[in-house]
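Collaborator request, handled under Task 6.
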Amino acid sequence: MVSTDVTYLTGSEQARLIKARQLSPVELMKETLNRIDRYDPVLRAWITVDPDRALKQAREAESEIMAGTYRGMLHGLPFGVKDQMHALGFPTTLGTKVMDESEMVPPYDSTVIKRLAQAGAILIGKQNQHEWGKGSTIVFPYGTPRNPWNPDYDASSSSTGSGIAPAAGQCSFSIGEDTGGSIRGPASCNGVVGLRPTFGRISRHGGVMAGYTSDTFGPLARSVEDIAAIMEVVSGHDPSDVLSSPRPVPPYTKQLDGDLRGMKLAVVRELAYGQGVDPEVRAAFEVSLDVLRGQGATIEEISLPLAKHAVALQMLTTDADVASWFLANFLRDRYERFDKGTRTRLVASSLIPATVYHRAMRARTIVRAQVLDAMRRYDALLSPTDVFPPRQIEEARERITNRADVLPKLIMRRIAHYPFSLSNVPAMSVPGGFSSKGLPLSLQIAGRPFGEDRVLKIGYAYQQATAWHRRHPDLSATLAAAA
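Structure tokens returned to the collaborator:
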């Protein structure tokens, strides 16, 4: 469905209308909140929304702009955040009922939210997620998130609501969090753009980051241009985060054009053509490669034979990091309050011996070295974001009952995500077609450390030559299907 509804315009298009005083931030906010009221009882993208606060800030933004004070491309745009980062005035639920209400009160605003507020963006509320930001949730404490293209289908994990909301026109953009694919997966399944930036590019201060060596915030929106504008605002060093990088932030939006001449890209054979890649995904990916060639890129095929080990290695290490935090804080005393899927994964991870953890961390560096070596030879690496189309919700639940469940339910869902999160490099999912059932498919573009500018340039050129990001779900049909 192609729509000219103002809530389905890209954030950049909304921004240009706001700047030209052809669109009121108040009008945009009212339309956005109306979509949340109407459709979220089915989609469950949100945990907490404060419409009164959002409208008050929209009126303030309108007054500023009418008075000649325009803060930039995000001024007056409504956004939401994964409920894993602190925002004063909103509880930090982390998608769980394990904590008591008094434990959900945020101590301060996260740095990301502060920077967005300074740019004039307006926080609507907190978005639904897998419990504690870990995939594997079976029963969602705040309602099962549903795919806006078909409510019977999965919306991925764990920044689930952060992918649903911009796809459904319920905000201009979202901020999610990616440990092993939790931005790119929801972007792919819901048909929006999602960027996992280089580890350290965006401050993590004010986020509950249990996966200390991998977790990073990143934007989800309806276009690559939107992502570039958001990255200019939220990126950069923060003294409150000792792991944030001091590197200067490039002018991402000024480097976007449709010309890829001279760029050398590589298809990762194991991720694009390996075992378990759905034929529809492969066919859409081949069309995407033709588009990039048409924009001037040269494309070769390479092998990363160690990439297949990334899922096991990252789950061994990052899950152990996460489990150590929960074991000390909640898991021993509140075991029964956890979702069964979450606690099973955390308990298993807490039993990983230190010797195994140490060997897995050393093995991670070997896999990362192979990825980085390829990136020295190419401007970016390409693959599908997900190797199969979105699945029905029940099929997607990670119930592991025997050894045969491990490959399809644990490994294959993550196989194209983890090589790049393990390597802590930027990777972006861009809409790349639809399955025969009308569900989104996507292209993944991964770049060198701190090479977001090149990743964005490639993604922008791709979107200049395609219209997949211009298609939007028919939510009236979605409501009817859920009735």
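The cover message to the collaborator said: "The domain at 6-482 is CATH 3.90.1300.10 (Amidase signature (AS) enzymes). The chain has 17 helices and eleven strands. Please let us know whether this matches your experimental observations."
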